[in-house]
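Sample A.
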Amino acid sequence: MSAVRRHEQGRVTALGRLAGLFRRLVQDTDTAVGMLYVLSPQDQLMHLAILSGLPRGLAAPWVRMEVSDAVPVAEAIRERRLIWLSSPKEMARRYPRIGLIAPYEVLVVAAPLEWDDAVHGGVCLLWPAWHPPQLSDRETQALEVFCRRAGQLLGQAAGRGRPLLPQPEPVVLSAQRPRQPRRAEALAAYDFAERLPVGCCSLDLEGRVTFLNTTAAELLGVGAADLLGSRPWERLLWLRDPALEDQYRAAVMSKQSTAFTVLNPPDQWLSFQLCPSADGISINITPLPREQAAAEAEPCRTAPAGPLGASALYHLMYLAATLTQAVSVRDVVDQVADQLVPAFEAQGLVLMAAKDGRLYILGSRGYDAAFLERFDGDSLASATPPAQAIRTQTPAFFTSFTDFQRAYPEAPRYENRDAWAFLPLITSGRAVGLLVLSYDRPHPFPVAERTVLTSLAGLIAQALDRARLYDAQHHLARTLQTGLLPQELPNIPGLQVAARYLPAGHGMDIGGDFYELIRCTPTTAAAVIGDVQGHNVQAAALMGQVRTAVHAHAATGISPSDVLARTNHLLTDLNPGLFTSCLYAHLDLDRRQAQLATAGHPPPLIRHPDGRTETLPMTPGLLLGITPDTDYPTTTVPLPPGTLLVLYTDGLVENPGTDIDDTTTDLAHHLTRAGHHDVDTLADTLLEHATHTVPCTDDIALLLIHT
């Protein structure tokens, strides 16, 4: 068996075991809804891996989220603690954006999945509002056991090089039944339902009819065969009210019974009672006299068919809220794709940008890359449907393949796609891109739906335009900043060195973190690391001045205390209005020792040849640039062969809500456990450890020196 195949089988096995553990947790805690996420450290995203109690469509807004998002499971991962929301009011107060798409009466618990001092995912469980305001001992124990076992499973899989990576779709757990009924039992149940004087109907979690008795069919005025497999509010015009679909969503999400009254024209009032369970909803339908219906509290009105159902409206409200916070183009693409595809029940989506007379693919759903490649970079002067829609700045809707082929006989067709919407993204009178939706069946695009899509295109265009400006500024800032850092470190015999720089910030926020390794003589060198206050162009410019000053003084061979003192004099004379922390180390390879001085900078870590790691005790001087007359005491430490010095900026050890001394000690313990790898591997290990659970909120500079 090939290594690749064994690797894939290992992932499948891990996912199966994880699903088994999660199913047991859901059963032991009797939760209404369960969601399990795996964490992708590379992009700080949480991906929904396993889902219970909800259909995939209702969970669409939470399939992929950032660790920084304002949702309970993200907060649990960030803070490495259990989050318990003991009432719907607390949920609405702490996470108001969730209320836009799930305004239902639920209680929530979220917890991280940890192993070997790292977070690998998170779990979120929902209960109906009638659940007690505290977790029971049984629920708490079941959750603790699951988090420990699931965290171990994920951690060990990652340690073996077989991490559980995000899958295209989450695993949706079905409710387990004790056994399938025998034929005689099934017939008896059917006869029982037929004899009932009320209408009986059953929906699966997707809202599709799986059973209805004759009485229900008569009350609804439709044949049973016509309704089976469809959603009632999509098939029956008089049920096409988002408020009615919302009753179904509320029952599925909260697992609480609900009831409403509807008029079946011209004069038949019907009472619907929804009784949810883990795998669907049972509905009782009862006719009501007009007088009784009038006495019912606020009966649901009957409305003409609208363009969107409740699910779509919630998706669009959520999209509008998230687009206001989308920063980069990637943010816009992900939010649009995640919300619009389920909202309009499309099978494909493509988002394009118009630039320099050409079209470029920004992102897609439901298409393979090979098909889209032919359109990437296509000229706006071409005769393709995307180019035509942008040139004319007019939306184009094709309700069937025949309609599409009539307009573009040479245009390629992807698989069995049968309907398309081409929506130019226009802001300030110019087209900045194009949104394409496609369907695998004919789609009528009623007037109201076209109006909604056109309005949404304007909203997306504004978000995309802002995001492209941000990306351009961000790229400019990073180019400027990295240009001020060393392009490569000098090769110094007797030393193994590695450096890393990890930026953080938004737009033009430029950090002032810097590092330097300087060859002084054939047997001596200087290592420098520092952090200029602020995140702007001024900070970056001052960082360049500090680097130049330190480099010039280091070349004269003076002591570390004098290097910092002279650099401090220069900065106070310049009076830039910003302060700088700096650590300077003079390395003498003949004497096997180092002399260090610090200007308010975090002390380095030192790992001794025996593997013991500690924070180097040092007496700090004031930050550079505060006052001209400042002393910087020197600390001397031995550097026997095998010693490792770790110089870093505070971004490596800053964790909101945690004391920096604790995180520094934790980093030292991690360095001890990391073993004697080469310095490049150790540098990557330290960065991964520091950023595994908390998004990078400050720049990080890291310099490792191994004798």
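Sample B, a different protein:
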Amino acid sequence: MTRLDTPPSTLRAWLGLVVILGPCLLVAMDGSVLFLAMPAITDALTPTADQSLWILDGYGFAVGSLLIAFGGIGDRYGRLRLLMIGAAVFGLASAAAAFAPSAEILIGLRVLMGVAGATLLPSALAILSTLFADPRRRAQAIGIFAATFAAGFAVGPIVAGQLLTRFWWGSVLLINLPVLLVFLVFAPVLLREVRESGVGRVDVVSVLASAAGLLLTMYAVKHAAADGLSATGSVAGLAGLALLIWFVRRQFRITHPLIDFGLFRSPVFTIAIVTGFLPLAAWSATAYLTSAYLQSVLGLTVAHAALLAVPGAVVLTVAAVVTPAVVARIGQSAALIGAHFAIAAGLFLLLFAGDTGGAGWYIASTAVAGIGYGISFSVVADIAVAAVPSERAGSAAALAETGNELGNAFGIAVFGSLAALLFRLHGPDLAPTLGETLRLPALAPVALADARAAFVDGLHVVAVTAGLLHAALGLLAVRVLRRSAELGHPGGDDPGDVHQIVGGGDRHVVEGV
């Protein structure tokens, strides 16, 4: 039995938001929680260099490749139902991964966690959009959601650092269980089932094509960045691109597409989706590399390294929370532009971090870049949900979150591989990574100094490359969005303008509580 939605009470809406924030925090946190744990995992499971990368980014690959598919499935068959199933699987996979006996099994379980995580984000954000009838309160709630998502990425290494000083590496995954248990108990009470009405079944062919195309393309990019061009990687990449092109063309032909590509008529929406990708790529790569820098180059303990990450995490979270108020004053366009320039400035500060000292420059870098990261996360989420009628919110949210997760996975795969390549070219040529070099017996002081200097050089190149990309995107945003405003296109400085992209009502069906 279904009926039209009636707005929930204010108290119930905010309690529902609190419940939704749990899975959101975990999905984001599990994208970064293993950064500081990798030395302990390496000692326990002895993965190869390639397996180490897959342990880190296999999760992000799975989430990114399936978000679009699960966003559409949740819209049609029930977002709350999908949330409950995903939370249960995420918890079981986390518990099993914490006790993984080998690198191969850990990789497989991390991928399963990613599959479950892909069910959580779009449905959670879509349900959130139905809890608040007032647009301003909805914007505030989305800002809190975005801040929690951003904070999850930022605090992952911090939480891991505290746990690793007391427990074994698997503890960083077991912390998921109590949060998910609370969600599974209270979600059916505080949240309502919401699904899109008046549409056909999910186009299974589109689901398979989008997932396979993204996965093959990401695999090809990672393989090429880490090992160079090969027949296997090239074939995978071409097949993935072909599937994605076919998928896009199919969306224009079918009646009920997984993605409404008409959204990209808005320059603000388009720049926002790119903004969802690039900052996560820069953040994940530099967070991973600076975690190794603080421990393996500066010689800091895990706890000390985690403590140094706190200021940047606080700045990032606060920036995401206050962004809706900032956008109300300066507009989405200015916020998007400012985010890119702030991130670029923060990344360039890493150039002053050397192999003999640089903890202060690291803190300054994360604090300055954190302003841009927080703004970008919040603006992207708000634009995605505001751009569509609420019954399509899951698909739009999935598109925005796909950019985030693909950025997270590509950042480690591409920028991380670039740093590894530079280490192999300029290091002492004793082992493929800094961590493996430092574990060699009787390592000469000169070789140790060369290894650390080579790693820092790689970190600098990654920071400059990512910073230049952000500066270029910021300049492009200035040009494109200014032209859009002059022509009077949707997506100007008024956050509400994005609604004009799709038109239509605010129709959705909510099952009885």
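Observation for Sample B: The first helix runs from residue 10 to 29.
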